[in-house]
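Side project, low priority. Logging it here so it doesn't get lost.
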Amino acid sequence: MSVTTENAQPIRFYRPNYHVKTPEMRSPEYVQMSTAAAITLGLISGKMHRTACTHCLNLLVTYPEGCRANCAYCGLARHREEARDYADRNFIRVDWPAARYDEVIERVQAGFDRGQFQRMCISMITHPNSNEDTFVLLERWVKEVPRVPVSILSNPTTLEKDDLIRMREMGADIFTVALDAVTPEIFERTRGKGVDSPHKFDHYWRAIEWAADVFGPEKFGAHLIGGLGETEREILEVAQKIRDLGGHNHMFAFFPERGSLMEDWPPVDRGQWRRVQLARYIIDYAGGNFRDMRFDEEGHVVDFGVPREKLEALIGSGTPFRTSGCPGKEDDVSACNRPYGDSSPTDILSFPFALKRRDVDKVRRQLHGQNVKAG
């Protein structure tokens, strides 16, 4: 597939379902991007349910030999290398097409995103070249597309504190750590020795502390996945620790990734997810605190620690149930809206757009344990 800009050479775009096999398709010359980003740039045709675009250009370093980690819930995990070509694997529910980095930059410079991108994110993987290639991608972007700030979704397993300092000095705006599993036990079972993977909980937590020191308040965050076996109390206690350090929490609902080791694990309970979303927002943006919340014996939130009128206003706004991630033009609304990255359009868990009244009504019912779909 190729398209032509008004003042440029044809831009060739490689889609995974073409089964392109070439040893040259590796970073930093090539990057993969989310389907939503590819649609927003006009590189592939398609429409997204109730939204026209993503506000974050999510890029992923890529290599034919793939990621060397083996996280149980991830579509990029090493154990899948026999099943599908690496570039043909789904990741957070969607395909990630590959394109030349030159061509991606050219399209953004030419305004193909119609000014929609409020942020670009470089996502690292576990690979010997990932660190240095991330520096190359970062340096070029800051120099050639300065209007769009850059986030780094890091791989702490291969990083040291000096690497974070270098990223900040090169112009990275926000640094994030995909902690994902919020207890050492769950982390070990899903990301560590339990699945023959190299990641360690202590090193990931140390990277969060490094980020707090190097990037400072409001300039770092952590990804947390709800539904890996943790209680609401456990995930929110970690969310408060990250907020106490000055960071923000980017929540993902667990959705069984096709072909992953956890493909038969059930999706996160809807009531649990809505309570965690609401409590996370209260901790991050509404002045609340985990220590003021109350939980039952099973770790469910039974009191959010804020006055009822304030709680009802927050629910009514719908904002706590939108996708959480690095900020864009509004501090409490994520630029990284990741359309349908953790659920289908027929049962929306993280809303990539402002909720309408009917959406809020469904969310309210889910908060109270009613098994209704939000879409």
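Brief comment: The two ends are 32 Å apart (CA to CA).
Revisit when time allows.
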